[in-house]
Amino acid sequence: VLTDPATEDAAAAALVEELRRIATEPAAAAEFARARARLLGNLLISRQSNAARASRCGADVLYGRAPNNIAHHLKDIRALTPRRVRDAAARYLGTDDRWEVVLGPA
């Protein structure tokens, strides 16, 4: 969170509260649909150049996936639901077991 050093504590508390909310409440259907559409659109736009496609194919192979795995990736994103995202957030973000790092002026 980019903030003034004077509001650092309030900003950190707001971020933690937002993470807790995401981990306990599914997103509203309309908000979720907009976010998923934006994610899908950005993913497709990011693959328009040949260099981007080659880079993604290389990453797919590096991580043990089939090259040009975009169809599977798009299918997975389309299959997401607010409850599935909430459940994943609860598992990975909904605990007090976290690191907080604050970068400030030198």
Task: Describe the protein.
The structure is a single chain. The chain is built from five helices and no strands. The chain is mainly alpha-helical and 106 residues long. Helix 1 packs across helix 5. The mean pLDDT is 90.
SSE topology sketch:
Elements: H1 8-24, H2 29-46, H3 50-62, H4 70-79, H5 82-92
Helix pairs in contact: 1-5
What is the makeup of the main sheet? none
For the terminal residues, how far apart are their CA atoms?
A: 17 Å
Helix/strand class: mainly alpha
Gyration radius, rounded: 18 Å
Order of helices and strands: HHHHH
Mean pLDDT metric: 90
Question: Helix amount, in percent?
Answer: 55-70%
Number of helices: 5
* SS elements, strand count: 0
Bin the strand percentage. under 5%
Give the uncertain stretches in residue-range form: none
Based on CA inertia axes, which overall geometry fits? extended
Key descriptive features of the protein:
single chain, 106 residues, mainly alpha
Question: Brief overview, please?
Answer:
By secondary structure, the protein is mainly alpha-helical. Helix content is 65%, strand content 0%. The protein has helices at 8-24, 29-46, 50-62, 70-79, 82-92.
